[in-house]
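Q: How would the structure tokens look for this protein?
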Amino acid sequence: MSGAEGITGPGEFERPPDSRWRGDAPGPPPVLGLRQNLAQFILLVAVNALVGGTLGQERTVLPLLAADAFHLDLYTSALTYILAFGLSKAVMNYFAGTLSDRFGRKPVLVAGWLAAIPVPLMLIFGPAWAWIVAANVLLGISQGLTWSTTVVMKMDLVGPSRRGLAMGLNEAAGYLGVAVTALATGYLASAYGLRPAPFLLGGAFIAVGLSLSVLTVRETRHHALLEAQTHVDTHSHAHGGLTNRQVFTLTSFRDRSLSAVSQAGMVNNLNDGLAWGLFPVLFAASGLGLEQIGILAAAYPAVWGAGQLVTGAASDRWGRKGLIVAGMLVQAAGLATVAASHSFWPWLAAAVLLGLGTAMVYPTLLAAIGDVAHPAWRARAVGVYRLWRDSGFAVGALLSGLLADLYGIAVAVAAVAALTAASGLVVAFRMPGRNGASGGTRPV
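A: Here is the predicted structure in token form.
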């Protein structure tokens, strides 16, 4: 099967032959390519930097707020907000793909920003820990809708040839936003206290992101249809007419490439959940001040974000598999260094290693999904992948919290390091080829 044949199955694109997609502005027919869509691409990069900044408002401050304002001593209790965030974001990642195929990308992006509006207010004024947990449910919903949609929209715009570069730029913008905001909130908390100053920054990001998404972002779903018309299927399951259940099963279990990528994404965010929830507590218990904790909390996503400017494009040239395997092993080395260290400079080196390994993995995993999934169900495959990936936040919060309560933070970090190395080996043995392309589609 080739062209657009078969792409109107359950949950698929539904488009009358001569009509425009809902949400489109009048204009010329769509053209694929980074250069051809540069203005919209740069705008979406900026939007995702704001998405990352909205998340970054919590990275330094919230673990300390749990102990200081709410007197939560057990690590498992303090990590409930990451569990709530991870579960809600994972579920919304899945629905973001399905909804964007049905209603268009832009409405889903706008809905995500609307869900974020109450978050800074709840973090500032919440009188009980339940308010903080509820705020993170909303934050997870927002992040699932906004970040997933910016990923899909960039894939739509650039087409198959520059997908790794596109994902590198997208994830770099998002995690540099996380890093800069984590650093800024550390200084704000040091100067003005844990509340409200750090969370006012998040409120400003939400206002700007919502305005840009409503006023300037254009729909991209018709670009995906154009790409679908230029694809030839290499395997029977690659055609467009797949149900949501079939896409879920393929991405999660049946396709060797997609399933290997999904488990690696889950373990990657498992160790990110550990870093988010326990690292600031570990650093504070060792006597580091808020400014030093802010630097360490920012270094990891800063290297992660900046590194993706290189690694995403490198995966286009060298292939996906090698970068994924190597990146998981580098992450494991960084985590092991954290577990074995007790002072600022070794921890800073470990944060750099952890960020470098994550930079090698993060855009490459997304690009690998785009390589294998047909454009007609790619948004849903990305949603399923991100469902598994961000459920790692919840698994990481539970696993690391329980281990930290029982054996201490160092043991929890060492256990996650071993799990991360094992995940890299799964990719090495399960994912075929350089890009995992067997079982997928290829452009003509």
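Confidence is low (pLDDT under 50) at residues 1-25, 234-238, 438-444.

The first helix runs from residue 38 to 56.

Upvote if useful.
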